Fold this sequence. Notes:
Blueprint: H1 3-17, H2 29-40, H3 46-53, H4 57-79, H5 86-97, E1 102-112, E2 131-138, E3 144-152, H6 157-162, H7 165-172, E4 180-182, E5 193-194, H8 204-230, H9 241-259, H10 295-309
Amino acid sequence: MSAEKLDLLLNEIGPLLLHNTSKSGALTPKQQLFVALHWLGCGAQYHIVGDAHGVDKSTVCRTVQRVVNVVNDVLLNRIVRWPENIPNEIEKFYRIAHFPHVCGVVDGSLIPIDAPTNNEPAFVDRWGDHSINCMFVCGATKFFYYVSANWPGSVHDARVMRNSNLYRRFERQNIFPNAVILGDTAYPLKQWLMPPRHNNPNNPLEERYNRRHKGTRQVIEGALGILKEKFPCLHHLRVEPRYAANIVKCCTTLCNFARIGVNDDEVEVLNENNLILQEDENIVLDHPEREVPIRAAILRQEQILNLMNN
């Protein structure tokens, strides 16, 4: 993040970081921001970051939590969201691998955490580790448009999707007419959500669909790689699940913030009129599911296959 971008970030959140105290040793907003960014950018133990900044490890702990909460309160819904110019986004995706009508790509990621004291078995993922299951949607330039970090690691990606605000909004009415989101085989087939065809396609058209689908979906894998490279703390969060979810959202927000202005279409992402779909911060341990008809979704996938044949 450039010095100019740090100044802009400080102007956005600095007033909320001021300590209402007469003590002379209180950290300034700038010091708090630098301590938090240092920890988020390395994931080191608190005492190591504290030694680097000349503060106690308990101060680092409180400062990081404060900055994370302020970033999420002030910037999350302004920055992690779809742009207004969706046709332009569809065109960018088409240039990647010639898959039509794509407005975003989705994938899940397991963020390791320490074993929680409550509901510990729910957080054991398929690898036997403790984690939270986070869902991300990004655009063609690896700019994140949506993040959900509400579920423990044992929950399947499809269930995370089915119980998200994103799913409810698109099921009620496709907010971007004719546009689709691409996901891997973990996700269900919907009119607006396209997984790959079956594992062994039996005709050239289906092979072309899968090849272009894979080429386009690689964008989200690259975006998640960038996110975790910028914020190594996400390789293992030694905090309780709810706080871990807030850190994931904060890192996603800051990752986008660092990208603002890199591409012309991302300059207006701070516009207050853009679409808000973010989740609340509560970790969900159980939620009912329901079956939905897929005939319309199959027809929609066939339409896209036909487009590729033209």
